[in-house]
């Protein structure tokens, strides 16, 4: 034992009111939901989400009033809800500050932070309102302290090396805590992600503290037999915990599919704050991870279970 | 070989859009596709006239050959048969490096220069409705040699000025001043092209090489050029209409409904009468 192992409750306690936070996964895949629910139960406030892209986890935290600032590029539930209704409502009511970037810009911002660079240079999104100086929302709110929040949203420069023209410098995405939700982690923290790893390696490395929630904790020695299959090195991970079905209602490659019906229900019911509160009362408050799974029930979970040869579920009805 | 076109009763508007989009793809191209109808269109091209196209999905699969339509670009099905399964840094680096020939995107609003909005409706600082946000829309539209948009056609969506320029068209804003310039001027050596077509639920639109302005190319069955002009807030050029959008062939319909999307995730089947 290395002492990295903690409980779900302890993991949530590491994330303080006002922490900046990022997650593994992509839109409706491999989001650390068990911990997102626990943060809501613990009533966390003032979170600053910095995400390569948002998804249901954003919508749950925003709906529950845990989030003050959201920096990202996209939020929705893909096929199961076309936009983030909770974020949209809170933006309209000015209850949340949104800082918009493009997807590639967010990715390059994380890559910069992950390599210890203060910024990245890119040419994407030139000419768009993403670069409209009027729309620097953190600047407007007077929050650009040059510490955790960069002094500028962007800086334009001319390529000083090859004369390639106008460049956009985007600040590194410095994050307090990254929470990953993956298939396997070793006892010392080595992570093996199966399937697309999205922006997980960069997100884990960009954060000061990295917590890994895995479907299973496996012997470290097992993962080290084939290190070329591993995604994140042991020392980049600070805490680990085992949490089967921890990504539900999002999907996990090779383990279980997205629970589209659950997300559709969430999207439909949470367009109003009353709807969200009602949903949270039913599914989050007064539960823990095990009672949540019991409430879902085995038939539903077995239907989501992935076929091990195909890596997705053949039982889920996807279309009309 | 004579093409076996379907009769009007045999297909619906989503079929027509999918086939029109599919025909924008050339063989051997590297294509970057978003979730939904674009995916079906590209995979249809792969099954018909472009067997050697290379698919890139934003979430991180390079040259995948999914036998079944994925539900999203993050789906486990994306990586079936892929050359490499990786992450977003790879996918966007490949795009910025200049490998991508064609991007397929959607949008909520478009203006006459092909600027697209997917961020909000109304004033950005006081929005009526917040949409999904940029996602990879501006990135693909910045870096692909050409981009095709698939959109619902409503007068309020074909607008003189989009609420927010999420994705760059042919004439874009040069910040910090915000003056309108041709994208070539702004992108320097990163300039590769721009929006090449908009396939709406009313017709197919293209852009003038010189002015960057949109014009109507073909009308979908049941729409006249004049009607389509009425469905735009800007003064649509209808002087270059080449005719009606070609209907799907029976072979294309077979691939869409029996091979690619039998579950009707993105494309509903037309109910045959009696």
UniProtKB/TrEMBL annotation, chain A:
Which InterPro entries does this one have? CoA_trans_fam_I, NagB/RpiA_transferase-like
Q: Does the keyword Lyase apply?
A: no
Q: Which GO terms describe its molecular function?
A: CoA-transferase activity
Matching Gene3D superfamilies: 3.30.30.40, Glutaconate Coenzyme A-transferase (3.40.1080.10)
Q: Name one Pfam family in it.
A: CoA_trans
Keyword set for this entry? Transferase
Q: Please state what the protein is called.
A: 3-oxoadipate CoA-transferase subunit A
TrEMBL record, chain B:
Keyword set for this entry? Answer: Transferase
Keyword Iron in the entry? The reply is no
Q: Which GO terms describe its molecular function?
A: CoA-transferase activity
- State the Pfam families in the record: CoA_trans
Tell me the InterPro entries matching this sequence: CoA_trans_fam_I, NagB/RpiA_transferase-like
Q: What is this protein called?
A: 3-oxoadipate CoA-transferase subunit B
What species is given as this protein's source?
Answer: Citrifermentans bremense
Q: What is the lineage of its organism?
A: Bacteria, Pseudomonadati, Thermodesulfobacteriota, Desulfuromonadia, Geobacterales
């Amino acid at each position: 034992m290395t002492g990295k192992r903690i409980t779900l409750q302890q993991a949530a306690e590491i994330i303080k009111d006002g922490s900046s936070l990022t997650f593994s996964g992509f839109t409706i895949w491999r989001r650390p939901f068990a911990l997102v629910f626990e943060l809501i139960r613990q009533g966390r406030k003032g979170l600053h989400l910095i995400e390569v892209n948002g998804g249901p986890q954003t919508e749950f935290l925003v709906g529950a009033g845990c989030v003050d600032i959201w920096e990202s590029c996209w939020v929705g539930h893909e096929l199961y809800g076309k936009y983030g209704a909770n974020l949209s409502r809170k933006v309209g009511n000015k209850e949340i500050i949104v800082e918009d970037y493009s997807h590639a810009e967010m990715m390059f911002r994380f890559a910069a932070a992950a390599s210890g660079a203060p910024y990245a240079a890119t040419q994407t999104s030139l000419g768009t309102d993403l670069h409209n100086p009027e729309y620097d929302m953190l600047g407007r709110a007077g929050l650009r302290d040059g510490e955790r929040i960069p002094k500028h949203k962007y800086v334009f420069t001319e390529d000083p090396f090859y004369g390639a023209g106008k460049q956009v410098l985007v600040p590194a995405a410095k994050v307090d805590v990254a929470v990953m939700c993956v298939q396997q982690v070793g006892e010392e923290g080595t992570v093996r992600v199966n399937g697309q790893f999205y922006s997980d390696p960069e997100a884990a490395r960009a954060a000061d503290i990295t917590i890994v929630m895995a479907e299973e904790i496996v012997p470290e020695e097992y993962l080290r037999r084939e290190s070329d299959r591993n995604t994140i090195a042991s020392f980049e991970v600070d805490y680990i915990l085992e949490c089967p079905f921890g990504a539900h209602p999002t999907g996990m490659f090779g383990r279980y599919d997205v629970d589209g019906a659950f997300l559709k229900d969430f999207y439909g019911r949470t367009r109003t704050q009353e709807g969200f509160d009602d949903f949270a009362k039913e599914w989050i408050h007064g539960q823990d991870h095990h009672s949540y799974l019991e409430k879902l029930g085995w038939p539903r979970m077995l239907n989501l279970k992935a076929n091990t040869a195909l890596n997705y579920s053949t039982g889920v009805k996807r279309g009309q | 070989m004579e093409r076996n076109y379907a009769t009007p009763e045999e297909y619906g508007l989503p079929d027509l859009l999918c086939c029109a989009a599919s025909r924008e793809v050339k063989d051997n191209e590297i294509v970057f596709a978003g979730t939904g109808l674009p995916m079906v269109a590209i995979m249809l091209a792969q099954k018909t006239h472009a067997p050697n196209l290379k698919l890139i999905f934003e979430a991180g699969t390079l040259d995948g050959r999914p036998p079944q339509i994925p539900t999203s670009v993050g789906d486990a099905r994306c990586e079936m048969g892929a050359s490499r399964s990786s992450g977003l840094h790879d996918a966007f680096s490949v795009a910025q490096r200049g490998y991508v020939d064609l991007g397929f995107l959607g949008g909520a609003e478009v203006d006459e220069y092909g600027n697209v909005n997917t961020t909000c409706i109304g004033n950005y600082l006081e929005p009526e409705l917040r949409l999904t946000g940029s996602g990879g829309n501006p990135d693909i539209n910045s870096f692909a040699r050409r981009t095709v948009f698939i959109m619902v056609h409503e007068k309020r969506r074909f607008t003189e000025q989009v609420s927010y320029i999420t994705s760059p068209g042919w004439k874009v804003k040069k910040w910090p001043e915000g003056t309108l310039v041709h994208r070539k001027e702004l992108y320097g050596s990163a300039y590769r092209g721009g929006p090449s077509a908009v396939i709406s639920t009313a017709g197919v639109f293209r852009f003038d090489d010189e002015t960057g302005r949109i014009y109507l190319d073909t009308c979908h069955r049941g729409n006249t050029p004049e009607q389509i002009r009425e469905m735009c807030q800007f003064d649509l050029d209808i002087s270059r209409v080449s005719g009606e959008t070609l209907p799907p062939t029976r072979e294309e319909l077979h691939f869409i409904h029996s091979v690619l999307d039998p579950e009707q995730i993105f494309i509903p089947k037309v109910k045959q009468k009696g």
